[in-house]
Amino acid sequence: MAGGGRRGRGGIGGRSGGRSAGRSRGRVEKDVVAEEIISDDELESVGTKQKVCKKIDDAVYRDNKLSEGGKMKEEGKVIQRKKDELKRPENINCRVEDFGLILNEFCEKKRKIVQEMGFSGLFGLVDRQLPRELCYWLVTRVDVPSYSLVTPDGLEFTFDPIQLHWVLGIPKGHLPVPKKAVDEESKHFLAGVLARFSTTNVKGGLSRKNLVQAVEAPLQDVFEFRVAFLLLALVDILCPTTSYRLCPKLLPAAIAAVDPESYDWCSLVLEKVMYSVSSFARRFYPSGFSKGCGGCTIFLAIMYVDRLKRPPVKWGVFPRLKAWTEVEINKAKKADRITGGDFGKLGCVNASYGRPHVRAALDHMPLKRSSMAAEIAEVLMQAVDVEEEDVDGGLISTQGVKKRPKEGRGYFGWNNKASGSCSGSGVHDVHDVNGNDISVSDYIATGLISSPIILNNDWEDSQRREREEIERQERERQEIERERQEKERQEKEVRERQEREQKERQLAEEKDREDQERKEKELQKVREEKEEKERQEREERQQRYEKERQDREDKERVVLQEVERVAREQRERVEEEQRLEREETEREERERVRSEKEQEALDRLEKEKEEYERLNKERAENRVLRGPQSPERIDLE
């Protein structure tokens, strides 16, 4: 656990912090139901404060009365309890900030490689920060048995891998992400990955530091960069743990670096989120708090703020990471935060990705009919035969044009009078603009007809009516002919336009087919080139790995020879030191013997001297006793 101390049982460790231990913690409320759900025998101590439940019953997630964590949820004190118990921030190890900084430093070639892998949506993490308190609170709202997020207002949102695709923009292919090596080639490849990224222990996973160095290094081997980036994305964002190492079970995912878009990363991430939340729940519900949580918690945060009861933020943007800037997330957090408590103030709405948001405006701009559609509609309307009705002796067409009747009453009189004619009585009946009859006796006064018209007789009137009728019929015939010709012309234009459009569509379809075939050929060629390149890269990697192995063996052999040489020199040095020590001992022994002999010689000389002095003394005494003697005698003596 980052920032913590030594890891204890259950994956939790480090300094526990908090207040004095006089307060009872780490135990579920002592009632009958609670004892059946979580008993003391199922609790194991982790460190000095935190306790972990070996198993959580499904009812604990829903019934807040059954656990200490449930009480905190019901009282809205989840975040406050965490602050009271922990002196340092919670360990929510979805490393949004660090990963965003790494992505921001990518060159154009690296960005293109990430885009080809299908992970370009993760660039939305640049300049983003993880809302840790919100994520901590959301983890407590996850119901693992039902695979759902339960909000304080009672709404439930079932998790689905599609939501991961919408939020993160990662691939959701048809193949499951590899979880183990199924053949010797895969095993050899994973062994090379382990050797490349210098792990000290296979069970300990890969160090994040080595992956970061490989990703940030200058681009040389494209496939090696793909593997390193994929594993780093798993460590930091997709499947993070509470440590800074890649989980060993995720190492086989490196096999998918050949074609990441074909694999279902969304299901893998969701599975790891549920696993991490389950581990979190085993610590949170017995104690009322937890020191940290793994998993992709940024997914929970974005999914929650997208469903708050407030106007949506750029609802059509994909992935959702790009829509939610740090400013927008802070606004949503501030609006949803209960003063002095947890989140959940606004409530949520039932929104689904890919469909209109219930809080979004549903108005649309009016649709405009194209000019071509308007022309076709006009031609079709003109081609339709117009029906006519006879109303009070006058022909009224559907277009409102009044026509002269063929027989019956005229405009101004009876059927035996034409326009401007009069009867013998000199009275003429006409209609005003409103259709009322007007009786005119004084033609001159009214100015409606002149005196020459009065002089016309019936024969002239009949001849004029016949001419007018013939002219009218001719005009009608010509009008009908013109209408027929116009109709034929319009029909011909419509047919020609339709034929032209049909031909254009056929040409466009033919062109599309050719483009599609060309693209398929190009894709096939690219795939073949890619496969050939990957095969060459595999062979090169194999040769490189063999060379590295040979170099390693050579280095080990050289090191072994050096060790043997050093050991031999050490032995010789020890033997020389032992020889010198023996010689020194012998020399000291000789000196000691010589010293003893010299001492014996000195002692002997001392004894001889004493004996000589004694003899001289005795002689002197003898001379005194014998008296004086001659010099010759004395000399002889």
Automatic annotation (TrEMBL):
Entry superkingdom: Eukaryota
Biased composition (Basic and acidic residues): 568-624
Positions with biased composition (Gly residues): 1-20
Region named Disordered: 1-28, 471-556, 568-637
This protein's name: Uncharacterized protein
Annotated source species: Chenopodium quinoa
